[in-house]
User: What shape does this take?
Amino acid sequence: TLLATVCTDVAIDPQSVHKFLTSGTNKSFNCISIDGDTSTNDTLTFFANGAAAPADFQPLIHGKQSKNADVIAFQAVLDDFLTELAQLVVRDGEGATKFVTIRVRSDINYKAAKRAAVSVACSSLVKTALYGKDANWGRILCAVGYAPGIMSSTTINADRLVEPSRTSVSFIPSDGSEELRLLVRGEPQEVDEVRAKQILEMEDLEILVRLEDGPPEEAVFWTCDFSHEYVTINGDYRT
Amino acid sequence: ADRAIPAAKQKYVPASGTYPKGFLAGSAFAGVKASNTKYDDLALIVSEKPCVAGAVFTQNVFKAAPVKVSQGILAEKKGSDIRGVVVNSGCANAVTGGLGNDHARAMAAATDRCFGHDNPESLRTLVMSTGVIGQRLPIDKITSAIPKLHESLGSTHEHWLAAAQAICTTDTFPKLISRTFTLPSHPETTYSIAGMTKGAGMIHPNMA
Assistant: This one.
C-alpha cells in the first residue's frame, strides 16, 4: 500500500486543490510500480493552510486556461516534490537492488508512450534480468510489444503505435557516460559485454525506448528489479 | 522486527527539515498488530487551524474503509475546514464490511474530539490505514491511544520523522522530505512544503 501526506503553508482555493493534485500525481505517484499490485488503500492526502501567505495574497486558483505565474510556479514545485517523494518508495522496493527509470518516446501520443513504459516496468522477466544484471533487451522489447492497446487492433491502429523498424532500445548509465545502444531502428547491435556489465553493476539505470521518428511525447516511469528477497519477504508475510 | 535502517538507505533519511507553518505532526503506540509490542503505529498530521484539503485515492474496486470514509468527508466538507489526517499501520481495515466503515469514522471522530469538535455527522479528520487486508481494527486500542497521539504533536523535525516512521509497514526507512520555495508575485515570502510517504510492496498506484 502507498500512503502519502503533503502539507504546505501556501493559500490555495479549495476548488483548485484537486486539479493541482491530479496533475502532480499523474506525473509522479501514478508513474511508479514495484510489483504491479494496486492496493485497496492507496491514498495521497494534501493540506494547504495559507499560514505563510501575506495578507494581500490571493489563494491560487487552477483554472483551465490559467497562465497565472504563481499557479504555474506552484504546480512545478508540487510536481517536482511529489516525484522526489514517489521515487523514495521505489528505492525501498521489497528486495530491490536497482532503481530503474524507464523513458519511452513516442510520436503518437503520451498514452502510447506510457502504456509501453508500464508494460516494461511490470514485466517479471525484465525485472529479474535486471536483478541478474543481464542486458536482456529482448525482454524489454517483448514487453513493449504486448502492452495493452498495442496488441489490440479494435479501436486503435495498433500497427501505428509501435513499428518494429522504428524501435530503438538503449541503456543510459547513471554516471553520465555514453549511452549503450542495444537495438537501433529494429536492428540488434553488437553489444560490448564489458560495458554492459559496468552499466548494470550501478544501482541506478535508465532504459530508453524510442518508438518515434517525429517530435516525441515522452513518458517516464520508475520501477525496481525483482529479486529472491522479494519472494522471501512476501512468502514469509503472515496474515 | 529490528527497525535499524540499512546502511545503504541511511542517506535517504534527512537529519533536518523545514516544515510548513501551522502544521504539527506526532506518533503514538496503539498495538494494532499483535506482533508489534513497542513501535509507534499511529501518526497524526494536522493544521493548527482547519484548512483546505484534497486527496487522490486508489481506483481498486475493493476500496478500504478509510478510503471510503475519507472520500465522504472531503465531499461533505467540499475540501474546506479539514483538520488533518490520522493514520494507523498494522491493519488496512479493508474488506471489513459496515463495521470497518464505523471503525474508520470512529478514528476520525476520536481525533476531532481532541480538538474540541464533537460532531460525528461532520467529521474534519481524514483517515488512512495500511497493513493486512481482511482483518478488523482493534478499534478500542486505537481510540484509547488517540488522546496520547494528540499530546505527542509538535513541529520539530523529530516529530515529523516519528510520524513518518509510524506509518511504515515493510519499509526499511522512513520517507520524509521538505523544502522551501517562493512564488513570483511575492518573491520576498518563503513558503514550505513537507511530505511523508510509505510503501515497499503492493505498489502500483493508479490514484484519482
